[in-house]
């Protein structure tokens, strides 16, 4: 099939007809065409630039299986005000270095580089950099807390400060520290927390007392709506150098953990094990490892891995109509009210003839070079049906493509069959396996299927090592001298290098590309809809990203969007719910106050708090009260929907 025959209109949906003819039957399936032809990764040489400087950047263009791709790319530069200032069409060949000159009167703030393939592409790939006036610091400050959160009942929060020159020598001087609270991107400093400490041999610490914090709130629970930040300014003893730094997003919490049902199927097979993968995070969203958890029913226990996940297996009864699950942390040092918990409900898979297939694995995240042992388990209402099952067919998918198909033999009498799968670089960052068998029950023929999503540790697909050519090249270098580098990489590889002053990352280290962002971008284009399983056989195929057509009335629904239809429906339902919430809340008021209420629920593109927006109201206190009430109400609803969407995305 030649893709050049398709219209070059990314806004127009196009389909292909897949037709199969055999002596038994003729089948036809309509399949949606996806315009996702590869990935573009954008790397800048620095995360921050001064006005009048040059932005050096590279475009990495690769195929869906991450091989170099030669293709034209449309590149755009957008200002912090979302104004397009430059457009280029570039012929890229794997790694393409480019430059962009900033003017002296350039807008300060966060800029965006946007790139997309110029042939029918609908997806933009972006990278950001900051433009600001700065002077490279001579030393860097590291701010850390013993805990990544502030528990609402804690008496104090200790903050440790390290200051070292960029060449490693510790700093001696003084540090001025100020704590503050943040909500809706609006910061409020706590003036009574300003203090000065000594920095000796590069180290110092300070403490935020609980009483200094609660004095700013009418109610203790109001603190949960804010995060803490700490600003630090260090001055050397000589007074010649001054550096500022800030640590943000210290969450105020009632529990130090959060539980998500990430990558957990929403359907179970009655009478068979149900595997759920629990994801435990710290308040800032980072994985929480070595956290003990317990799942009910069954009192199933486990401990999270380095990536914050733990796979648990719950036994189910053959007549179970609904599976109610609750997972809680069981950390010894925490009281009962400090433990985190979360619940979910799984629905039963609905077979047409009483036949089931369950795919299971043990463990959590797998590494390249390891063998994954995949278990195929069957259950049949009529045991005689099992004589028809001589093998399982399976399909393995990765990065939106089918990478392997095969069969796994089954001997007579086996209810459990295992298959060992060696993981290679091709399986990164994750893969899906779908398996099925076919049986006849009476006059009906049935396809019985199950699927599973398996995570693989993110790592390099190739080999790259950078060292000095000789021992003296690995030693500290003098300004103005040269050094030789030695590169070790895969045969015929192209390597891009960049040299950056470490001081730049002391100013801004958030916007540089890293391996995590790389794989996150790849994962985003998984064509599957769920972590596995489905409501029935067509649901299993559809949610895995596959189309199924048979001559015995088993078929997947037509896919009309490149992304999963269930997610689109979910978001449309969410929008409808918000509209209903607005109408319901406004109905509590009348006259002028109703108008004020509706104004409070309008979109707030500037990101101001509800309290700040009331400063411009001149229609009396009742109008202000109605505005504030409705503004806070709709804000809470929007945050709830965002959290639900995040949980949905995490569960993919």
TrEMBL record:
Subcellular location, record wording: Secreted
Alphabetized Gene3D superfamilies for the sequence: 2.60.40.1930, 2.60.40.1940, 6.20.50.160, Anaphylotoxins (complement system), Immunoglobulins
Domain Anaphylatoxin-like intervals: 596-631
GO cellular component: extracellular region
Record key words, sorted: Disulfide bond, Secreted
MF term (GO), any: endopeptidase inhibitor activity
Record bears the keyword Secreted: yes
KW Zinc (keyword) present: no
UniProt GO BP: complement activation; inflammatory response
Stored PANTHER family: COMPLEMENT C3, MACROGLOBULIN / COMPLEMENT
Protein name, as recorded: Anaphylatoxin-like domain-containing protein
Organism lineage: Eukaryota, Metazoa, Chordata, Craniata, Vertebrata
